[in-house]
Specification:
The structure holds three protein chains of three kinds. By secondary structure, chain A is α/β, with parallel strands linked by helices. Chain A has 18 helices and eleven strands. In chain A, the strands form three sheets. In chain A, strands 6-5-11-8-9 form a five-stranded mixed β-sheet, sandwiched between helices. Chain A has a four-stranded parallel β-sheet with strand order 3-2-1-4, with helices on both faces. In chain A, strands 7-10 form a two-stranded antiparallel ribbon. In chain A, strand 8 and strand 9 (293-294) form a beta hairpin. In chain A, helix 3 runs antiparallel to helix 4 (61-69), helix 5 (91-98) crosses helix 7 (128-143) and helix 17 packs antiparallel against helix 18. Chain B has helices at residues 27-37, 47-57, 64-74, 78-87, 107-111, 114-125, 170-178, 185-196, and strands at 99-104, 138-143, 155-157, 160-162. In chain B, 39% of the residues lie in helices and 9% in strands. In chain B, strands 2-1-3-4 form a four-stranded mixed β-sheet, covered by helices on one side. The longest helix of chain B has 12 residues, at 114-125. By secondary structure, chain B is α+β, with helices and mostly antiparallel strands. Chain C has 24 helices and 31 strands. In chain C, helix 7 crosses helix 23, helix 13 (451-464) runs antiparallel to helix 15 (484-491) and helix 13 runs parallel beside helix 18 (524-537). The chains are: A alpha/beta, B alpha+beta, C alpha/beta. The A-C interface holds A 169, 171, 186, 188, 190-191, 194-196, 341-350, 352-357, 360-361, 364, 373, 377, 383-384, 387-390, 435-436, 438-439, 442-443 and C 46-55, 57, 62, 73-77, 80-82, 84, 98-99, 102-103, 105-107, 109-110, 139-140, 142, 147-148, 165-166, 168, 185, 187-192. The structure holds flavin mononucleotide, iron/sulfur cluster (SF4) and FE2/S2 (inorganic) cluster. Iron/sulfur cluster binds next to helix 4 of chain C.
């Protein structure tokens, strides 16, 4: 198993952002094929492919699709989660920037399969360039009759696709918060099952809603074109197909690498040219929210949902961050905590108060005022957040810190006793944290 | 910050008073908003787009008039609009420098030298994070992951990303910006509004 | 009532049956299991903004489709967890106690420990829960969040942001209940704060409720601030006197001073809300200006006198007047006062000239609504309003005229998707004021004074719609031959809107409200006829509501302070004079004495010139009052009488509900109950009245007035009782 290009196959074809070039590479074939099938047959194909959500949670896509199709009355909505905000992940960025037609085609297939006539691509506000590509792809698809009324002559299939731009909030990647944001509200999460309805039953505007990640939709054209069984022939027993891994950090060739699920973690590292600047210290394999793996635990782990879980971490969104031996884990954890404290939506107590507190403790440690009790306190705060917050952002804030302490406890202790970095001179101390500058004018 | 003694102060938000007192959207902005509203089942959903238009119309930041105008056009309570706007980090409530340097210091950028870039910029511009140079050219901020980690350190300036920045080449970024009138907050907002509209402009374009 | 589906669940091993979908936090209450909480409130929406404090966590095992029981890996918030068949819940495990400690520790890291100087101290949910479940010490050594201490949000509410725990009760209240949507959160994460737009004044008619809702001392009452500690206060069950809606309240007092007013739960009336007029308007009771002794005019000046002296004087003057005496007022007195007053006038003084109405219309009660529908005021009980599929608010500044009815109608719209049609004169609806217009499906914005043609337009639209059964000729006659288009042009309302409104009204469970723009119109009778036709035509006869607006105005009507009606709407064969006629008679010096019953006549009467000249011309004017009003200042004798806090009594509210209020304290032995004044005088004048107390009088009313038959002092309870229908029936 090694690099296997499927979604990224045409990434480097010149002009691939244009519809003609995309069509010459077999683009929109999947859609045309889907339109010859029953809606439910399209979903069956997705079921056979066993493709799982690529946004982080790995939920089988077909179950959501059929959940929406089973509603026959209310309007349905289709949403693409292009809010990619997970530190270390940049696959959706590239998929939208270069292969926007692949995404648009995937969404049209999903719209057909779920009998939906309105869709939104929710793109994070910072992604101006990728969003411009999606805009261009949508405009071209309209011009060619892939979008709009009576698509490809099918009187019973209309689909309008809009872009909705975010405005700077990681939490809006969480699907219920995304729905709030799409509806013009603060990007705070909404009640989930069993407390509230599932999005497929009552999502945005209380209507059945399908929400999938950019990469998930992008798989659909290939599955339709080549068949679900073909897709399922790749990957492992329970993790089928390919996954794009965004490799960054201390590696020679950072970038997006598409691999067959189940590829050994160390092979991914090799694909990216290996560690630079020293020996490997740790890898975060699935974005900032997943537990960090120290170098010695990386061997033997495969990049699939099950193997990662068995190793005590997660495949997540595939944000693969590599750290060499000159990395100060305490400073890294401080920055992770700062991220979650800054991005917590503030709705629920544990996440709002706990993330900020964790950050304050870690910030104190790296400014030389750590206390021996701080390590247990941090672990305790993690426990008090994990599983108690309104949405998984709280959990995602607790896991990495807990794993950081568990795997690198002696570095925390070093900081606390010696008031300096165990790594030594090279380590640049972080700039002081500043609260929301907009608050300062209050006198 | 800590003002403990007095017990009847109304918080001051002085800096948010606007320059454009009787603020209204331009006819073109109204046409844009009208069209965007048709993308959704109700007007409220056009909140984020409307705030983007406002950010452009009011010179790169949301004045209280801007909030009022959005509330009026969408028929929503003003407090709600303000609540939504302040939730998102990309809406500004104070004027920013012409070029807003937003340095990603998040995990990977942080590990490959972003803090060095920030310190270098602070030194070169003579300001701290969150501040604006006295000539109004630059504002310096730190931001969360911009999700282009392969190119760390990444700096966003308005609608443009600079990748592979190091403390040694950051001077080039400044030079490039000093010569340009693009990549400002309003140009970012304008780009976003264009992205929201099919073919980049409202069907009923007002000249 | 739809059938309730019941499910069987277990809480802490105890099996119980609860309605499917009931929140577990409520189910637990059924068996006396308390689950701590902050943000939960059964009247605030769960979906948008609830379940945020995470205090109410419980452990849940749910029944799988195959019958097995599976424990959910994470604790769940019981405030948002709907009961489902077979669920098993634990509320009291070691792990949960740790969770609660954790939540409290988090809440306290930024909450200042200034309980000793906080008004909420002693009745603070955060304080109580911390004592019960909280950690003994804090591990937080960093700087707490700081804000400038309290700042005023409005005339009534002061806000201490440091204390806020972000439960979103206040913000949800303004969206779910009061509808002004003035409060919202700013920023996010730990920087989040509650605020009004741009920190401008919190503009609401219901702002006081957030003080009671806030589970900490963040939102506080400005008038009450630093005035008392809750454990020093006594509390009396009372009824608000500021309008006709009859909110149930608690008067919290110390000695003879009212310190604050809180709502008292009554599901049928105010639920648990009050409006600001009531919550902050009751301090007149212990105001310095209260009159504490009778006053007599000597040498042109009012000067103190003894009760003996004044009663002797009044008795002799009234004897001289021999029937040429009249009485006005009564809308602010208790049912007992009113009953005794009219009995005193009719039986002791043999005068039929009594009226409580202040104009401008004085239709005979013998016609109009009473005759047609058997009720001259509200046809629907308040609680029923939330189930009306559509409601027409016609010619009313509803939120100000009927604050509590407004909340009910809005509740029906917000939580039951009911429709509201508004018809309001052009000046009333503005962009800035968020009231009915904000949620009305259709707003008919008519030219001032065109209520009649607008009502006709709606009726015509209903007629023209072929689908409706055609009414009788009589209904048609009220149209004066007009069609929708003509009405539209007369009123300046779009014809399409009139038709759309009529469409919404054509349903069962529709009700109509006519407000002051109708009752004060010269066309009042005709407009009400047409609105009545609309009710009849849509199959909602009786659902026409013309609510009164003053405190016990309804009681004054029911108990016959009317020239043409005896108590219980028994027709008077030879009617006496109405207010207007009484005042004109005074001016013409046709009357020898006038009794003004606890009413500031010169202020309230619609024509103040007439009222003033009447007061000047009448040779002997007695005024009962709480303080020297403009009217009292012109009287010959002023008698100090009890306020609602100083006696037991009853009021009849706008929906004809009789509710009791209790005595809190006495201000002075020289202040008397109003009924006592009449009964003492009556005895002096040779017709002894021997009432021991208010309950005695109510018992007599129950016996002699059939509509009051169910309203005995012992049957009223805490919720009050609605009067029997008026004999004669409805159309
Ligand atoms: C805090 C948080 C942030 C998330 N951010 C993203 C994101 O940026 N992009 C994304 O696709 N999914 C994100 N998710 C996952 C989504 O909630 C959701 O599972 C996903 O969009 C579903 O699509 P999928 O089934 O195709 O993976 C996030 C989840 C959480 C809890
Ligand atoms: S002010 Fe009070 S009611 Fe409002 S959110 Fe804060 S704690 Fe809750
Ligand atoms: S009461 Fe349930 S989360 Fe607050």
């Amino acid at each position: 198993m090694a690099e296997l290009k499927l979604l990224l196959k045409y990434r480097d074809v010149p002009g691939i952002e244009n519809i003609d070039v995309w069509e010459s590479c077999g683009g929109y074939e999947g859609l045309k094929k889907a339109l010859t099938m029953e809606r439910s047959a399209v979903i069956d194909e997705m079921k056979i492919s066993a493709v799982r959500g690529r946004g982080g949670a790995g939920f089988p896509a077909w179950i959501k699709w059929s959940g929406v199709l089973k509603h026959t009355d209310a309007p349905h909505y289709l949403i693409c989660n292009g809010d990619e905000g997970e530190p270390g992940t940049f696959k959706d960025r590239e998929l939208m920037l270069k292969l926007a037609h692949q995404l648009v085609e995937g969404m049209i297939i999903a719209a057909y399969a779920t009998n939906t006539d309105k869709g939104y691509v929710y793109i994070r506000g910072e992604f101006v360039e990728p969003a411009k590509s999606v805009r261009k792809a949508i405009d071209q698809a309209y011009a060619k009759g892939y979008l709009g009324r009576g698509i490809l002559g099918r009187e019973d299939f209309n689909f309008d696709l809009y872009i909705h731009m975010g405005a700077g909030s990681y939490e809006c990647g969480e699907e219920t918060a995304l729905m709030s944001s799409l509806m013009g509200e603060r990007g705070q999460p909404r009640l989930k099952f069993p407390h509230g309805a599932l999005p497929v039953d009552a999502g945005v505007w209380d209507s059945p809603t399908l929400i999938n990640n950019v990469e998930t939709y992008s798989c659909a054209p290939h599955i339709l074109r080549n068949g679900g069984a073909w897709y399922a022939s790749m990957g492992t027993e329970r993790s089928k197909g390919t996954k794009i891994i965004s490799v960054s950090g201390h590696v020679k060739k950072p970038g997006n690498y598409e691999i067959e699920l189940g590829t050994p973690l160390m092979e991914v590292l090799d694909l990216a040219g290996g560690v630079i600047g020293g020996k490997l210290k740790a890898i975060i394999p699935g974005g900032s929210s997943v537990p960090i793996l120290p170098a010695e635990k990386c061997v033997g782990v495969n990049m699939d949902y099950e193997s990662c879980q068995a190793a005590g971490t997660m495949l997540g969104s595939g944000g693969f961050m590599v750290f060499n031996e000159k990395t100060d884990i305490v400073i890294l954890m401080r920055r992770t905590a700062e991220f979650y404290a800054h991005e917590s939506c503030g709705k629920c107590t544990p996440c709002r108060e706990g993330t900020r507190w964790m950050f304050k403790i870690l910030d104190r440690i790296v400014s030389g005022s750590g206390q021996p009790s701080d390590i247990d306190l941090l672990l305790n705060v993690c426990d008090q957040i994990d599983g108690r917050s309104y949405c998984p952002l709280g959990d995602a804030a607790a896991w990495p810190i807990r794993a950081g302490i568990k795997n690198f406890r002696e570095e925390f202790e070093y900081w606390i006793t010696h008031k300096k970095s165990p790594i030594g001179g090279d380590c640049v101390p972080p700039v002081p944290y500043r609260i929301n500058p907009a608050l300062i004018p209050l006198s | 910050m800590d003002n403990e003694n007095s017990n009847s102060i109304t918080p001051e938000t002085g800096e948010r008073t606007s320059c454009k007192s009787e603020g209204r959207f331009s006819p073109n902005a109204i046409a844009e908003l009208d069209e965007i509203i048709t993308h959704y089942p109700n007007k409220k959903a056009a909140m984020l787009p409307a705030l983007w238009i406002a950010q452009r119309e009011y010179g790169g930041y949301l004045t209280r008039e801007a909030i009022r105008e959005v509330a009026r056009l969408l028929g929503r309570p003003k407090a709600e609009v303000e609540g939504v706007a302040t939730f998102y980090s990309m809406y500004n409530f104070k004027p920013k420098g012409k070029h807003h340097l937003e340095v990603c210091t998040c995990l990977t950028c942080g590990c490959v030298g972003a803090y060095g870039v920030v310190h270098k910029l602070e030194e070169m511009l003579g300001i701290h994070l969150g501040e604006t140079t006295s000539d109004g050219e630059f504002t310096l901020s730190e931001v969360e992951c911009l999700d282009w980690c392969e190119a760390g350190t990444v700096i966003q300036v308005g609608n443009k990303y600079f990748g592979h920045v190091t403390k040694d080449n950051v001077e080039m970024v400044l030079e490039q910006l000093r010569e340009s009138d693009d990549h400002t907050s309003p140009s970012l907002a304008d780009d976003i509004v264009k992205i929201l509209l099919p073919k980049g402009e409202p069907k009923s374009k007002v000249e | 009532m739809p059938d309730i589906e019941w499910v069987y669940i277990k809480i802490n091993g105890i099996a119980l049956k609860v309605p499917k979908g009931e929140m577990i936090i409520e189910s637990a209450k059924r068996i006396g299991v308390e689950i701590p909480f902050f943000c939960y409130h059964p009247r605030l929406s769960m979906k948008e903004g609830g379940a945020n404090c995470r205090m109410c966590l419980v452990e849940v095992a749910s029944r799988m489709p195959d019958g097995s029981l599976r424990k959910m890996p994470k604790p769940q918030t019981s405030c948002s967890l709907p009961a489902a068949e077979g669920m098993e819940i634990e509320t009291d495990t070691e792990a949960l106690n740790a969770d609660r400690r954790g939540v409290l520790e988090f809440l306290l890291i930024n909450h200042p420990l200034d309980c000793p100087i906080c008004d909420r101290g002693g009745e603070c949910p955060l304080q109580n829960n911390t004592m019960h479940y909280g950690p003994p010490t804090t591990r937080f050594i960093e700087e707490k969040r700081h804000f400038p201490k309290a700042y005023p949000l409005s005339q009534y509410v002061v806000f201490d942001r440091e204390r806020c725990i972000h439960c979103a009760r206040c913000t949800r209240f303004t969206r779910d209940i009061s509808g002004d949507e003035e409060l919202n959160f700013l920023w996010r994460g730990a920087d989040m704060e509650v605020a009004t737009f741009d920190h401008t004044e919190y503009n609401s008619r219901f702002s006081g409720n957030v003080i009671e809702l806030c589970p900490v001392g963040a939102l506080l009452s400005r008038p009450y601030r630093f005035k008392a500690r809750p454990w020093d206060l006594q509390s009396a069950k009372s009824i608000c006197t500021q309008c006709s809606n009859g909110c149930n309240i608690k008067l919290d007092y110390r000695l003879d001073r009212i310190h604050r007013v809180n709502a008292r739960l009554n599901e049928d009336v105010n639920e648990e809300w009050t409006c600001d007029k009531g919550k902050f308007g009751m301090d007149y009771i212990s105001d310095e200006s209260r009159l504490k002794t009778p006053m007599i005019r000597r040498n042109g000046e009012l000067s103190p006198a003894s009760w003996e002296e004044v009663l002797y004087l009044i008795a002799s003057e009234l004897k001289n007047a021999e029937g040429e005496v009249a009485g006005v007022g009564g809308a602010y007195s208790s049912n007992e006062d009113i009953y005794v007053f009219q009995k005193f006038m009719r039986e002791t003084l043999r005068s039929k000239h009594i009226d409580h109405r202040m104009g401008p219309n004085f239709q005979s009660y013998n016609s109009g609504l009473l005759k047609r529908f058997g009720c001259p005021a509200m046809g629907n009980p308040i609680a029923e309003l939330e189930d009306m599929k559509s409601t027409l608010i016609f010619g009313s500044n509803f939120v100000d005229e009927q604050p509590i009815l407004y909340l009910r109608v809005r509740k029906g719209w917000r939580f039951k998707r009911n429709k509201v049609v508004e018809a309001a004169p052009q000046g009333l609806i503005s962009e800035e004021i968020r009231h009915v217009t904000q949620f009305a499906e259709v707003s008919l914005n008519y030219k001032n004074g065109t209520e009649l043609p607008l009502a006709q337009g709606l009726l015509a639209a209903l007629f023209e719609d072929k689908g409706r059964p055609l009414g009788e000729q009589k209904l048609l006659s009220h149209l004066s031959g007009k069609n929708v288009a003509q009405c539209a042009s007369e009123t300046g309302v779009d014809e399409k809107d009139i038709r759309k409104a009529a469409e919404l009204l054509a349903t069962d469970k529709m009700c109509i409200f006519a407000g002051e723009y109708v009752t004060h119109s010269p066309d009042a009778t005709a407009i009400l006829e047409v609105l009545g036709d609309i009710a009849v035509l849509t199959g909602n006869a009786g659902n026409l509501n013309v609510p009164v607006s003053r405190n016990n105005e309804q009681g004054a009507m029911e108990l016959g302070i009317l020239p043409d009606m005896l108590p219980g709407y028994v027709e008077e064969q030879n009617p006496g004079m109405n207010t207007e006629e009484i005042l004109s008679a005074c001016v013409k010096e046709d009357l020898k004495a006038l009794w003004v019953m606890n009413t500031d006549l010169v202020k309230e009467y619609h024509n103040s010139d007439l009222a003033n000249s009447a007061m000047d011309a009448c040779p002997f004017v007695v005024v009962t009052a709480l303080a020297i009003t403009d009217t009292a200042a012109k009287a010959n004798v002023v008698l100090p009488v009890h306020s609602v806090a100083e006696k037991w009594g009853t009021f009849t509210n706008v929906e004809r509900r009789v509710q009791a209020f209790c005595k809190a304290f006495e201000i002075s032995p020289d202040i008397h109950a109003e009924w006592k004044v009449f009964s003492d005088l009556s005895s002096m004048l040779g017709s002894p009245m021997t009432y021991a107390d208010g309950k005695d009088i109510l018992n007599e009313i129950v016996k002699s007035v059939p509509t009051f038959a169910k309203c005995g002092p012992n049957t009223l309870g805490d919720e009050g009782v609605i009067l029997n229908p008026v004999a004669g029936g409805k159309e």
